[in-house]
Amino acid sequence: MPSPRPHITVEDLSIGWGTRVLMEHVTFQVEHGMVFTILGGSGSGKSTLLRYLIGLEQPRAGNIYIEGVGEPHLYEGVPRFGVLFQSGALFSSMTLAENLALPLWLDARKTFTISQDTRFIGV
């Protein structure tokens, strides 16, 4: 019986921003059930690589296959995985102003909730 296809296959991938090349000729496979880690220093392209893998950015060159389906923008429906970026990442679906306001809004909501809760216990 043939072995199942890899969950993620990356072939000769090149990525970057503008004229800056972050990675070139990257090739790897992630099998089902495998724990796969991306390690590198600050600014080396770890989060950027994830953005390409989930289809938020289109590569300069190379191919990405998830479950044997090429190019992430060709997926039907919602992919069966999610990504939580490091705390400093911006939401691409929001404007810069909305990204800047979000932590302030969340903090104000938390402060409001705490102040409401403390009045009930006499603090």
**Could you tell me how far the N terminus lies from the C terminus, measured between alpha carbons in angstroms?**
68 Å
Q: Report strand %.
A: 15-25%
The Cα radius of gyration reads 20 Å
Give the overall form. Answer: globular
Helix content: 25-40%
What does this protein look like?
The protein is of the alpha+beta class and 123 residues long. It folds into 2 domains: 1-87, P-loop containing nucleotide triphosphate hydrolases (Rossmann fold, 3-Layer(aba) Sandwich); 90-123. 27% of the residues lie in helices and 24% in strands. The chain contains 2 helices and 4 strands, in the order E-E-H-E-E-H. It has a 4-stranded antiparallel β-sheet, with helices on one face. The N and C termini lie far apart (68 Å). The mean pLDDT is 75.
List keywords for this structure.
Rossmann fold; 24% strand; globular; 2 domains; four-stranded antiparallel β-sheet; alpha+beta; 123 residues
Would you kindly provide a brief summary of this structure?
With 123 residues, the protein is of the alpha+beta class. It is built from two helices and four strands, in the order ββαββα.
SSE layout:
Blueprint: E1 8-17, E2 20-30, H1 46-53, E3 61-66, E4 69-70, H2 96-120
Antiparallel strand pairs: 1-2, 1-3, 3-4
